[in-house]
Structures are given as C-alpha cells and as structure tokens.
Design goal:
alpha/beta; globular; 4-stranded antiparallel beta sheet; binds zinc ion; binds adenosine monophosphate; 457 residues; single chain
C-alpha cells in the first residue's frame, strides 16, 4: 500500500519511498529543556508519535531520533540575538544549566508519557555532540559557505542558492523581515550564526578553533541527525514555526556539508491556539497537561481532541472542546468494555479503510470518523472490540482501560492540583493529607508512573 505524505518542501503530497525497503528513519525536532512543555508543544510531538505509530501499523520498521536542545537556543532566535534560553532559566531558578536541563528533560518525558507519546529510539543531547558540530562548521568554512569574525562563525546564505526554498522566502523577504539593529559583522543580514563567541558567557562554553564559544541552535540538528541517522534519511518533523529559520538553515548546512540532499520529506504540524492566538509560554497563554489533569480531565482526552483535527491545520483549544473529548473518550471505553464479551463476526472492510485513512497523509480525523461509523454499525460486538483494540495501536487512547465512573465533586479538582504540586515538591506529608481529604469526598487517588490517577468511588 502506498503511503502519501505532505512534503513542506514543494507543498504537495508525495509517495513515501524509504531509502531501505520497509524501514523508515525519522528525525524529530525536540524540546528546548529550559521550561515545561505546554499542550501546544505536545500536539507537535504527538504528531510525530502518530506518524511513527501509523507507519508501524502499516508494516514499516521505524527508527525515530528526537533531540534534546540543552544549549544554543537564543531568546530571540529568529534574529540570532539575546541570551541563551538555558542560561536565563538557570539564573532565574538559581541552578546550573545542567540541573535545569535534567529537570525539564524528565518533566518533558513525563508529560509526553501522559498523552501516550511513545519513547523515541534515542534522545541525543546537543551538549554531547559539540565535536560533531565543530567538524561540520570547519568543513563549511573550508567549502566557502561560512566565515569567521571575532570568534563567531556565520553561514553565508548567498553561498547556497536554494536558501529560502523550504519557507518560500526570497532574499528580499528575508531582508525586510529583519527588524532592528543588524549585527554589523554579518555580510548579509540574513546570515545566521553557526558558532557564537563566548563573550561574557562563563557557563556552557566550549573550546573551538575560533576560541571559546557555543553552537548556534540550527547546527545542532544537522550534526545530530547526520551522526545518528546517516547523511540521508527519510523524514524530518517539527512544528510550523520551525520551518523558518530553523529548518531552512538546517538544509543549507547539511546539504552544503554533504554535497547532496539529506532529508527525503519535511513534515510540519500546525499550531495549537488558545483564544485564537498561538499557545506560547512567552505570552502566558498556555496550559500544561498536568493542569488539565488536575481539572479532572483524562490526559488522553487531549489526545482524543488532537485526533479530531488534521495535523496540518491549526486547532483551537477550548474548555468545551476538552470536556467533549473527555466525555466521548469515556463513552468509547465503556462501549468497548461492553462489546468485549460479545460474539465475533465479519469485520468487513473497516481495517482496510482505517489503513487507507492513515496512509493518506495521516488523516486521523477520517480514522476517527471511522471509529464513530464502526460504533454505530451493526458489526458484531466482538468484532468491533477487536478492531478498536487494533486501531488503538495507532490512536493510543488506552481504549481498553476500565471505564471511570462519575465526575469530580466540587472542590476535588483544586485538591488534586494541590496534591500534584505537593508530590512534585516531594512534600509527601502534604500529599498524604490531601489524599485523605480527597477520599472523604469519595475520590480515590492512586499514583502511577504517569502521575496521579483518580476515580470516584
Ligand atoms: P521549543 O521547545 O520551543 O523548541 O518547542 C518545541 C516544539 O513545539 C517545536 O517543534 C515547536 O514548533 C512546537 N510548538 C511551539 N508552540 C506550539 C503551539 N502553540 N502548537 C503546536 N506546536 C508548538
Ligand atoms: Zn531541530
């Protein structure tokens, strides 16, 4: 069966033709670990997870590498300015950058697990690939694609004629997009930094042929993808804001370095919005998955919600939306548990249609429509249950989970949130006290690796 995926480069669906038959190698841009991920970030990571799960369901063997950015992402990265985000967080929290990275990497993995994002094959850290980055930068200078000024190395975008193709930016647009003061050492205002001179920085600084400094954000992904997946691999994923400058820069670096195309297909997920604007930490309009959980929603209700929209469209998050998804998810689990003991029967062409949907550029809304159609159909109950269990390998909704009964009584959501914070702060006395308070309200709490779970007695 042919799998067709939308390639951002060229803006059309293309047939997936893996370099090795039945094997797909994927690189996914991961989090910058200076803060918690919000549900917008999770939507993008969930898209990559759905891609891997879908390809596996269709019989491919998938290797996915996701980087952990623990250096080099500047506060003002589109303009190559500002302080490193890791250093800002370290200062604010009075910790070392390493402590910040360790804590938020763990928090990211925990939050991702709550929405059933499966583990990638590897999570390389940028700070562990500095020698590989330096080697690429040296080669780029040698080939005339980069130049050094005062210990900082810039990529010369005029040396790479297709710069701008991925994002469909022309050089003029790139120029007019540059606001404010331009670094006078750049030959072209659109040139980006490969290596930054340490300057005042004392932390996260490495020796290099250009003196002490630290890498730019974009070079990390070229170095880690090539080091771990080879100089040609099948798919690269990210969020739509990664198209420019991050992935545009990555293409310029990797292709100038290797002398050929490196990535087969570029795929990008569009944003999660809150009240019509992009969910973003900087503007303060965001939720963490733990906050939804503390409000009494199953974290997988967020996954259910995300499955209703095509990954390439924006999705607006709303209280009604998550409540509706939570309800629908519970209902589906309840139905599945009823059907499980029913008689088996003909599954008709349902599974083929499910496969067609996911093979058509991950059309999960169509797959979810099929779930609804199957539910209403007169297919035998045992066959319905079997199909839903199979499909759940892609959907990841824990449909087999015993259905929870009841809704939270008044005040319980606040207690659950307080207990979650207490556990995060390792205040186990408070967490035990809150557990008994919840019990008195009839809410039974258990602790799982994915966080606390509750049910109403
Ligand atoms: P960051 O840690 O800031 O590099 O972001 C991690 C990933 O989340 C990136 O791939 C972004 O494209 C993506 N992202 C950021 N904001 C949103 C949003 N509101 N909706 C969906 N994805 C997002
Ligand atoms: Zn990246």
């Amino acid at each position: 069966m042919t799998v067709r995926l939308f390639n951002t480069l060229g803006r059309k669906k293309e047939e997936l033709k893996p370099l090795e038959p039945r094997k797909v190698r994927i690189y996914s841009c991961g989090p910058t670990v200076y803060r918690y991920v919000h549900i917008g970030n999770l939507r993008t990571f969930m898209f990559a997870d759905l891609l891997c799960r879908s390809l596996e369901y269709l019989g491919y063997d998938v290797t996915q590498v996701m980087n952990i950015t623990d250096v080099g992402h500047l506060v003002d990265d589109s303009l190559d300015r500002g302080e490193d985000k890791m250093l800002v967080a370290a200062r604010l929290e009075n910790k070392s950058p390493e402590e910040i990275a360790t804590a938020y990497t763990q928090a990211f993995l925990d939050d991702a697990a709550k929405v059933n994002i499966r583990r990638a094959s590897r999570y390389p850290k940028a700070t562990e690939f500095i020698p590989q980055m330096i080697a690429i930068i040296e080669a780029l200078i040698e080939k005339g694609h980069a130049y050094e000024v005062d210990g900082t190395v810039y990529y010369d975008i005029s040396s790479f004629p297709t710069y701008g193709h991925l994002s469909r930016n022309t050089t003029d647009q790139l120029l007019s997009g540059v606001r404010g003061e331009v670094d006078p050492r750049k030959r072209h205002p659109g040139d980006f930094t490969l290596w930054k001179s340490a300057g005042e920085h004392r932390l996260q600084v490495w020796e290099s042929p250009w003196g002490p400094g630290f890498p730019g954000w974009h070079i990390e992904c070229s170095a880690m993808s090539i080091a771990l997946l080879g100089d040609r691999f099948d798919i690269h994923t990210g969020g739509s804001d990664n198209v420019f400058p991050h992935h545009e820069a990555e293409i310029a670096q990797s292709e100038a370095y290797t002398g050929h195309q490196v990535v087969g297909l570029w795929m990008h997920a569009d944003h999660l919005l809150l009240s019509g604007t992009r969910m973003a930490k900087s503007s303060g309009n965001f939720f963490r998955i733990t906050e939804l959980e503390a409000q009494g929603f199953d974290p997988l209700a967020f996954r259910f919600l995300a499955l209703q929209a095509k990954y390439r469209t924006k999705l607006n998050f709303s209280a009604e939306g998550i409540a509706g998804a939570n309800h629908a998810l519970r209902q589906l689990r309840a139905r599945l548990s009823e059907w499980s003991s029913g008689r088996d029967g003909d599954r008709r062409d349902f599974d083929q249609r499910f496969r067609n949907a996911i093979a058509d550029d991950l059309d999960l809304p169509a797959a979810m429509a099929l779930v609804a159609e199957l539910t209403r159909s007169d297919v035998a109950p045992g066959a319905k249950a079997a199909l839903l269990r199979d499909w759940d390998r892609v959907l990841g909704l824990d449909l087999d989970q015993a259905p929870v009964e009841g809704t939270l009584p008044a005040g319980a959501a606040e207690l659950l949130e307080a207990r979650r914070s207490a556990r995060e702060a390792k205040d186990f006395a408070a967490s035990d006290r809150l557990r008994s308070e919840l019990e008195q309200l009839g809410v039974m709490v258990t602790d799982t690796p994915g966080g606390q779970r509750w049910r109403v007695a």
